[in-house]
Design brief:
The longest helix has 14 residues. The protein folds into two domains: about 110 residues, 5'-nuclease (Rossmann fold); about 45 residues, no CATH class. By secondary structure, the protein is α/β, with parallel strands linked by helices.
């Protein structure tokens, strides 16, 4: 099982690859706060995410623990804190996140994490995307996301994009 915060799901929905990702990797579990964040507003991506939640491709699960300590120690939003707690409570395989603070926390505690660029790269490696499609999705994600040039170039090289 993968746990996600809002950032990666929103990015994958924005670029139009979320359904393909869910078809290949199965369900994603999110905490209640992340559900609130992804459904906020009347946007195209929030409508896509609402449908995926309604269709049970994205499962919503309440956390048992409190986020107070995590929020005091780390500069992150409640959704990221809940995703971290849910990961630990469910013994998940990894956290889907493109949030810098949650990535720092994952690195600190050696928690596997996957960002949206890595999702595209792995889908390409598994033959789910053509080279051209993978490069186009990486470019779209870079347009929407706040990736450093170094991170973006790393994934472009992984796919061998121009």
């Amino acid at each position: 099982m993968l746990v996600s915060n809002a950032s990666t799901l929103i990015l994958l929905a924005k670029v139009g690859i979320l359904r393909n990702f869910l078809n290949e990797y199965g369900e994603i579990t999110i905490p209640k706060e992340v559900e609130i964040e992804v459904l906020e507003g009347d946007t195209f991506d929030s409508k896509i995410l609402k449908k995926e939640i309604e269709d049970n491709h994205i499962k919503v699960k309440a956390i048992k623990s409190n986020t107070t300590k995590i929020l005091k120690e780390f500069k992150m939003h409640k959704g990221e804190a809940e995703a971290y707690i849910l990961y630990n409570e469910c013994n998940a395989k990894a956290i889907l996140t493109d949030d810098g603070e949650l990535i720092k926390l994952c690195k600190l505690f050696e928690i596997p994490f996957i960002n949206a660029l890595a999702v595209i790269t792995r889908m390409f490696e598994r033959g789910m995307l053509t080279h051209k499609e993978a490069c186009e999705y990486l470019q779209k994600l870079n347009d929407y996301g706040r990736y450093s040039r170094e991170i973006y170039n790393y994934f472009k090289q992984e796919v061998n994009c121009p």
